[in-house]
Design brief:
The chain is 71% helix and 0% strand. By secondary structure, it is mainly α. It has one domain. Helix 3 crosses helix 7, helix 4 crosses helix 6 and helix 4 packs antiparallel against helix 7. The longest helix is centred in the middle third of the chain and has 24 residues. The radius of gyration is 16 Å and the shape is elongated. The two termini are 14 Å apart.
């Protein structure tokens, strides 16, 4: 905890860092936001709910950025693996939080032109649940 206190930029800057780390982690850029989120919660447990909201929002917006980039790609024949996503639709994006496959799901949903509002809602639900589990572990 002493090391975390030494690195603490303060609650406002820390919340911003949670948002930025969560956003970037959900794009095609490499990185994770879990340690930033958990570390912030260790330092500022009183800000658990705002941190949860910002992490979820940032990660969802990052996923929707990947969705939008893929949506801009001309649509051709649906590859066999994308057909599974097309068949099950936006609810598949509840798994958008998952390492490795999450970015691919967001990109496939955009490329397939699945409805953006439904995609964002399912994506946000999955990401919220994942951060809630991290939050519970960090605060226990």
């Amino acid at each position: 905890m002493e090391v975390l206190t030494w690195l603490d930029p303060g609650p406002d800057t820390g919340l911003g860092a949670v948002f930025v780390a969560s956003f970037l982690a959900a794009t095609l850029l490499p990185g994770g936001s879990e340690l930033v989120f958990a570390g912030f919660l260790q330092l500022h447990p009183e800000l658990a709910w705002p941190a949860l909201a910002l992490a979820t929002l940032g990660n969802t917006l990052g996923g929707m950025t990947t969705y939008a980039m893929a949506r801009a790609i001309p649509h051709g024949a649906t590859p066999p693996r994308a057909a599974w996503i097309e068949r099950h639709g936006a609810p598949v994006l509840i798994l958008a939080w998952a390492p490795v496959v999450g970015d691919a799901l967001c990109a496939a949903a955009g490329w397939l032109r699945l409805p953006p509002v439904a995609c964002a809602a399912w994506m946000a639900l999955g990401k919220l649940l994942r951060y809630a589990v991290i939050q519970a572990a960090a605060l226990s």
